[in-house]
Model the fold of this input.
Amino acid sequence: MTAVSSEVREFASRKYHYGFVTDLETDVAPRGLNEDVIRLISAKKNEPDWMLEWRLKSYRHWLTLEEPSWQKARYAPIDYQDIIYYAAPKPKVALASLDEVDPELLAMFDKLGISLAEQGRLSGVAVDAIVDSVSVATTFKAKLADVGVIFCSFSEAVQNHPDLVRLYLGSVVPYRDNYFATLNSAVFSDGSFCYIPKGVRCPMELSTYFRINAADTGQFERTLIIAEEGAYVSYLEGCTAPMRDKNQLHAAVVELVALDDAQIKYSTVQNWYPGDAEGRGGIYNFVTKRGKCAGANSKISWTQVETGSAITWKYPGVILQGDNSVGEFYSVALTANHQQADTGSKMIHIGKNTSSTIVSKAISAGHGQNTYRGLVKVLRSAEGARNYTQCDSLLLGSDCGAHTFPYVEVKNSTAQVEHEASTSKIGEDQLFYCRQRGIPEEEAISMIVNGFCREVFKELPMEFAVEAQKLLSVSLEGSVG
Amino acid sequence: MLRIENLHAKIGDNQILRGVSLELKAGEVHAVMGPNGSGKSTLAQVLAGREDYDVTGRVLYEGQDLLALSPEDRAAAGVFLAFQYPVEIPGVGNLYFLRTALNSVRRQRGLDELDAMDFLALAEERMTLVEMDRSFMNRSVNEGFSGGEKKRNEIFQMAVLEPKLAILDETDSGLDIDALRIVANGVNALRSPDRAMLVITHYQRLLDYIVPDRVHVMAGGRIVRSGGKDLALELEEHGYIGLEDQAASDRSTPVGATP
Done:
């Protein structure tokens, strides 16, 4: 027992490998939030009036809201006037092509293992790189344009594709949706935009890489993905931030729209700075992610691997509106040190014969607290709807916790809803078995944890499954005392 | 190869081993028999490095202090335990697990790691020893295996890892006669002049198939009798009755220096 305890303690105080700060010249808005700051953000982006109006409408609504407190997470009150809402690395020159991206920025992404060179290691993946509040580079734009795929920063989309943005912005997550989504609607500064035209299978993985660099800033990005009839896209987001003593707020909104027969696969590897061993610093990751299967036979699939953030609070969901549409949610959430995660999914069944699957794997170590919270709602119209939910929790050590709060509302008697849940401790027997076969303790824990997560990892695109496994292993690195 | 001297082990206040001494030479197969609760499985666990026990005494393995090594170092040094209850590891492929184990051991021995192809060739060859079906090799480690499949999997792992000292803990328990024969054939095929085996069993029937050089009888946490293979037959006839009384009376006399 003693050996495992020390192992678990070490695990809980794992190192964060992305905590460096890059010295970038940054253009920042004044600290605090008011209508002037919102006008400033909008002006910086040269936005049309309708966009500014939408922001202001959101801001005014936000002022009437109270910060929610029902989640199972504890943190000191956030001072919204002490946050910088806009920070952008200053471009040295106006960018005409990738070759002109600030070498400091390229070096930063290289250090993060993300190649912005189009012939890089992940050459089959187009990347939109977002630093603090703005997109700094998007790769493979030209190649994607050949097949009609639009992949660009949100700011560019507002300029170049205003009709699409206007049509879909807020159509899945309305500006009134919730406290943080409403805040995001007022102050969002950038994000990715992606449009797959009718019948097109996007020829490569698309990904957005988010990096918070500047201190005391919040990151409020907004992503909008639209898959037209019969289109397919696989999309990945990754995120890291420097180690800072102060908590930083990340309140993003992601909206996905899938029309008839369209498929969107959205994968997240989230590795925001989790705070130190005593729970100082780290990112508050309060994110609203939702997809709408607007068309018949459409499918939206969320896969997330959450290893970072001081607090993670998100419920990627799917509104299953089209008949026979399919929603999926696969999640691995790791909480160590003093990390807290309250995460799960929402599946709203509206159309006939809609089906959804939720597989949640929670791993807790140290003083980590991991909560699954999920809603399965079957409306009266959802004849023949089906849901399968499985929540498994793995505990490493005795100071951590796992909690499950499933909510089920069924208004149609033909619906089938299944829920399975399990909680287990990492087995002494399993560890001893591995070690007796010659596998060192650290590798054994990593192997057992990865095995526990396999159902979710196999849903990730190949390269990212490898990344995710590495991330869990890195988290375990140096864990034998 | 293995010399156990006056080995004691306890969990909390529960003294389980009370002075076990045993010597095992390369090439030999020794059986350890005894009633339930006599300490047989504890002996196996302590030799393999299970950390739940307070252990005193001395165990020399190829001249080094075995008790000072971690379980994985013991494995690298060639100690293998076939578990009485093989453990399930969900989501970890059986072959992947075994390749990781083999390569960890090879690394620690300063040998090159085997790549996937070479490993597969080796695994396929050794699989035939225990008549294992390829289909369950890519299933998760022991998950959903029948009792017999689990035990065959243990012997298969042993065949791949090629230990110097193999400890088989009740490998026969839960096996029907056909599975018993398959497992025993696998074990016999692995007997060799430079490998020693300690076969722990409750019943004599395993020893019809795996014929030991020596038989030791444990009761009350120590070895109360040792003899040739005929001792097992004698026990089969008379049972373990009487041995525990003998162990109890031994306990009342101070435990002296071991031979």
